[in-house]
Amino acid sequence: MASQYDRAITVFSPDGHLFQVEYAQEAVKKGSTVVGIRGTDIVVLGVEKKSVAKLQDERTVRKICALDDHVCMAFAGLTADARVVISRACVECQSHKLTVEDPVTVEYITRFIATLKQKYTQSNGRRPFGISALIVGFDDDGIPRLYQTDPSGTYHAWKANAIGRSAKTVQEFLEKNYTEDAIANDSEAIKLAIRALLEVVQSGGKNIELAIIRRNQPLKMFSAKEIELQVNETGKEKEEAEKKKSKKTA
Amino acid sequence: MAATFFGEVVRAPCRAGTEDEEEEEEEGRRETPEDGEVRQQLARKREVRLLRRQTKTTLEVSLLEKYPCSKFIIAIGNNAVAFLSSFIMNSGVWEEVGCAKLWNEWCRTVDTTHLSPTEAFCVFYHLKSNPLVVLCQCSCYVAEDQQYQWLEKPHNPGNHTQSNSCQVFWLQMVFGSCPRKNVQVTILTCRHVTDYKTSESTSSLHTPFLKALKTQNFREPPCCSLLEQPNIVHDLPAAVLSYCQVWKISAILYLCYTDVMKLDLITVEAFKPVLSSRSLKSLVKNIPQSTEILKKLMTTNEIQSNIYT
C-alpha cells in the first residue's frame, strides 16, 4: 500500500500516513549520534564525529554550529539540508535582533526552524528536510533550554535527548541515568553526555566532539585533549564503580 | 498520454479499447532477431561459474560434492561477512576452495583476482584442521535468475535458449543435484528494519535485533526468537532456506534487522548470540581478539559518504 501513497509529499495514505515524512525520519537515522543534556547551569551537546577521508579537511565536517552567541544547534541527517536550515536560522537570528533589538529566545528560533520544516511537508514539488536538530542555549531569564525538531516540523522541549544512529540506545541510557545528582554541577553534566555517547561510540574519545554553553558565556567547543581527559576520567570512575560493585557482591 | 506533476509521461487508461491498439501491442511484444541476440548475450553474461580462484579453472562438480561437509555456514551481506571474518575465521586456518563468479546489474566487482575480505563477493573456505566445515562469504547480490537451478534439465553452459521460468545456477553450483542430508546449514544475513512488519511502530523497536527461521528438519533450539508472520525472507537467503526445506536438510537462517545497512559495528555485534549455537560454538576461540579484528575491519571501511552527517 505504501508504494501508492509515498511518491507525493502532499498525499495522505488511507490510514493517515505521510510516507515521505516518515522516510525523511529514516534519513535522520543515517546520520551519526547526537546527544543533548540540559543541566542546571549548563547545556551540553555531544556528537559522534564522522570519519573523514585522508585528504579531506576535518574542519569542514561539523555537526555543531552556533546560530547566535547564546544558541547553538547540532543535527543528524542529510548534510546539505542541514546547511540550508542553519543558514536560514542564522539569518533569522540577526534579522530578529535588528528588528526587535533583542536576541532570539531558544524557543523562537526552534519554532522558526520547525515552521520552515513543516512548510516543506505541505508544498508541491518539495520534499521534507532530512534532518533532526537539537537546539540548546540560554534565554535572557538565565534558564537553560534544550529543544528537538524533526523532519515533520514538530518540536518539543527535553531535559535530555539523542538523535541519529543508535539514538534509541542512548535515550534508554539517559532515561536510566539522568537524575538530579547527574546534573548537579557542570562537570557531572558533561560526564553524563560523554557516558551516553560512549554507549554507542566504540572507538572512544577520538570520535567524540563536545560543545557547552554556560550562562552568560558564549559557545565553547572542547579540544581533542580536553575530550580525551574527560573520557579518561569517565573511564576511571566507571572502573571504580565496577570494582565497588564486585566487592559488594563478593 | 498524460503528464504527471513530476514530469513523468504515463499512458492514460482508456476503456474504449480498439482492435488496432491490440495489434500494435502484439507487434511490440514480438521479438526481433536483434532482441534475441541481446537476450542470449545477457544470459551468457549472467551465468554463474564456480572457480578455483588460484587456478581460475571451473569446478566440474558442485562445491559440496567436491568438498563434502557436515557444517555449511553462509554469510550473505557485508555485516554478516564481517561477523564471520572476525569471530569465526580467526579460529583456525581456513583454505579457500572456490569462488563464485557472477555478474548482474547490482554486482559492481568484476575482477575476482584481487579481492579484500570485505569486498570478496562469493568465496568458499574450508577449515584445514576439519575439512568438514565449509564457510561461504557472499557480499554480492545474487539475482533471482541466478539463484535456483533450472530443475528440468541439467546445467549446460552452452544452452542459453531456454526461457527462464525457473532460475539458474547458484544453488546447483553449491549443493548439486542431490545434496547430502546430513549437512547442517547456518545462514546469516541482514535486512533493513523497515522491512520488518509489526504492529508496533518501527521507532519503538530496539534495532538491531535477531530473528530466526528454520527448516522442519532443524531440531536444535534457535539462539533467538523465530521470525513472526507475516514477515518473509527475500533473495539468496530465502532461496537457500527453501532449497534446504525441499531437500529435508537441517538449516537455520539468522536474520538481523538493522537500521544501518552498511558495515556497522553494532549490527555485526548483534549476531553474537549465534556464537552459542552448536554449529558455531566449537569454531569460536578468542572473543577479545575477534573484537579487535572487527574494530580494525571497521576502521578500514569507516570513511563514510558525505551525504549524511
From TrEMBL, chain A:
Protein name per UniProt: Proteasome subunit alpha type
PANTHER family attached to this UniProt entry: PROTEASOME SUBUNIT ALPHA/BETA (PTHR11599)
Listed GO biological process terms: ubiquitin-dependent protein catabolic process
Annotated ranges, domain Proteasome alpha-type subunits: 5-27
Family from the record: Belongs to the peptidase T1A family.
Subcellular location field: Cytoplasm; Nucleus
Main subcellular location of this protein, as a coarse class: cytoplasm
Organism whose genome encodes this protein: Balaenoptera acutorostrata (Common minke whale)
PROSITE patterns for this protein: PROTEASOME_ALPHA_1 (PS00388), PROTEASOME_ALPHA_2 (PS51475)
Signal sequence range: none
Self-association state and partner proteins as the record states: The 26S proteasome consists of a 20S proteasome core and two 19S regulatory subunits.
Gene designation per UniProt: PSMA8
InterPro entries: Ntn_hydrolases_N (IPR029055), Proteasome_alpha (IPR050115), Proteasome_alpha-type (IPR023332), Proteasome_asu_N (IPR000426), Proteasome_sua/b (IPR001353)
Listed Pfam families: Proteasome (PF00227), Proteasome_A_N (PF10584)
SMART domains to which the protein is assigned, alphabetical: Proteasome_A_N (SM00948)
Protein keywords: Cytoplasm, Nucleus, Proteasome
CC per GO annotation: cytosol; nucleus; proteasome core complex, alpha-subunit complex
Source domain of life: Eukaryota
From TrEMBL, chain B:
Superkingdom, taxonomy of origin: Eukaryota
Location in the cell: Cytoplasm
GO biological process terms held by the UniProt record: proteasome core complex assembly
Swiss-Prot/TrEMBL keywords: Chaperone, Cytoplasm, Endoplasmic reticulum, Proteasome
Pfam families linked: PAC1
UniProt GO MF annotations: proteasome binding
Main location class: cytoplasm
GO cellular component: endoplasmic reticulum; proteasome complex
Role this protein plays: Chaperone protein which promotes assembly of the 20S proteasome as part of a heterodimer with psmg2.
UniProt subunit comment: Forms a heterodimer with psmg2. Forms a heterodimer with PSMG2. The PSMG1-PSMG2 heterodimer interacts directly with the PSMA5 and PSMA7 proteasome alpha subunits.
Record family assignment: Belongs to the PSMG1 family.
Record protein name field: Proteasome assembly chaperone 1
Encoding gene (name): PSMG1
